[in-house]
Amino acid sequence: MILLLSTLTTYAPILFRRDTDAQWAKVILLGIILASGSSAYRLGASLQALSTPGGSIASLFGISLGLSSLSLASIFIAAKGSLRFASPWSRVTLFPAIWATLWCIVSHINPVGYLATWSIAKNTDVYNWITPYVGPAGKDWVVAAWAIVVSETLTQWFMEPQDGEYGPLLSSAPRILCNSKSTKILGILLTILFVPSIIQPNLPPLVSNIDTRTPLSVGCVLPSYQTYKKHVLSFDDYFTETKKLASMARVILWPEGAVTFNSVQERDHAFASIRTNLQHKIYIGVSFEETVSDPVDPTGRTSMTRTGLAVISAASSTPHLVYYKRHLVPGGESFRLRHSGNEPTLFEGELPRPNPVPKPDWGNAPNFTRPILMTSSICLDFAIPSPFAALDRKPGLILAPARTWDRTVGHAMWLQAKQRAAELNTMILWCDGGEGGVSGVAGGGIEEVTQVGSGSFVRNIAIPHPFNSERTVYARFGSLGLIFFWILIYVGAPQQSLATAFHYMQVTTRRRQSMAAVAQYRGGGTQVIEGPSVTEGDLLGIDQ
Questions:
Q1: Signal peptide position in this chain (predicted)?
Q2: Are 433 and 443 in contact (CB under 8 A)?
Q3: Which DSSP state fits 369?
């Protein structure tokens, strides 16, 4: 992405010149080329997104063309807008602010969130530590800032005065437009941002240290075809698989829409069956599709189908948490499912003492348990900005059932889950029941995928103890961090503007003195009034 943006920003002054023949034809052609490349990269995963391949390809190209157009528009605005600034620092920091703001806005207004942006979702780099403070916009700003550093460095290298007839003249000319110093400062700033990740690497904590960590085993129920010889698994199949993990895991999650209930009574009977047959103190996240009466219809004759998640344990006669999916895949899910408008909620579970640990070392009397805050969300909800903004505390674990139709899509959603975990500085149990689904635990220093495809698994993790439920800066203020990037444009700008103005006054004064001396020498005595040159006038915003 940095290479692409640096190439586009370097080419921008030539591409957007008004005196260029067929200027907009070249811009449109470039947009089509970018859209074609983006579509080709995502083609395999998109063929099954809609009912027909033709419709899928057309939709994919249309979305890619729109995103390419927005990207070129942001580069155009930055290229033209930078000419309005006298400060070199403002010129080099304008595009990163525009780029971060653009994708923040796009992610909020489109139905699939960050999936339909050029925003970077990978968070295994050295800048991941800034995510809890400024969110995804911080990564976008860093990418655009590095692109500007590369672009400005290449531009200055190509424009460096060469040996020749005009070499000495060019080398001694005032360089009001030069952004070299500000580019170096920006590069140094980006390099300094490496330091926290080098000093304190993002590594998983020690599970065995119970004084500062609460060890927790989590499991994902993904029954394989080899075991059950079925393509469509029943409630009994999932429950049988769950009992195999019950002795090894304290929290167990089923994938999105694992089972189907045709009525509220059928759902409640299944939940009661789970509670009755549980022999261990565990929490089970059951994801389901249910068809129930539409609450909008007072007669109850109209039905609706929705995807939900319920957290069940033997300690409660009702689910600890019930959540329904809020964002549906356009076309693939939206035509048959009903989305929910309810925000995620928190519940506090209790983790019993492991047998080898003395009671006082684990918790307080009388229960000698440790609390754990849990919440949930489902699949596409994780691609939407700030899905947990309504929570007043930070969860220790987020249950995330999913079901994707392609490995590429599964990996893209896994990256979104990791991004949300980094924003909240928490951990997510991601359980993808799709064909070639990507599953694992994200956050807490864990970066790698646990499993691709079917097959149940258990993963040991560690949650900080005592747990700090204070929300991160980004969780509190969301995208307001963008204001900082716009303020940064004007940092140092007044001093540089004054220096530029002072330099211009010196040049103008010397020029007038020289012209007056020439006129007096010629004996004409004519007063010469010299205005600013074309280049100086452009820099100071003077119309010629």
A1: none
A2: no
A3: B
Give bridge partners of residue 428 from the DSSP assignment: 398, 442
pLDDT band, very low/low/confident/very high, at 166 (cuts 50, 70, 90): very low
Q: Single out the residue of 543, 192, 212, 538 nearest to residue 370, CA to CA.
A: 212
Reported as a single tens digit per residue, the pLDDT across 298-315 is: 887 889 999 999 999 998
- Token pair 């996240």 is at which residue? 285
pLDDT at 492 exceeding the cut of 70? no
- Nearest CA to 391 out of 423, 416, 366, 361 is that of 423
pLDDT, tens only, 263-284? 999 999 999 999 998 877 899 9
Cβ neighbour number for residue 372 with a 10 Å cutoff:
21
- Average pLDDT of span 192-200: 88
Task: Give residue 73's pLDDT band: very low, low, confident or very high (50, 70, 90).
Answer: very high
What pTM was estimated for this model as a whole? 0.85
For 302-361, the DSSP string reads -EEEEEEEEEE-TT-SS-SEEEE-----TTTTTTT-----PPP--EEEEEPPPTTS-HHH
**Residue whose tokens read 């992405």:** 1
By 3-state DSSP, what share of the chain in percent is helix, strand and coil, each rounded to 5?
45, 15, 40
CA atoms within 13 A on the CB side of 503: 16
As a whole number of Å, the CA-based R_g of the chain is 30
Domains, the chain: 2-202 (no CATH), 213-482 (3.60.110.10), 499-539 (no CATH)
User: For the residues 98-126, what does the mean pLDDT come to?
Assistant: 89
Judged against a pLDDT cut of 70, whether residue 337 lies above it is answered with yes
Q: What does the DSSP assignment read for 139-179?
A: HHHHHHHHHHHHHHHHHHHHTS--SSTTHHHHHHS--TT--
Residue 147 CA to residue 144 CA, distance in Å, equals 5
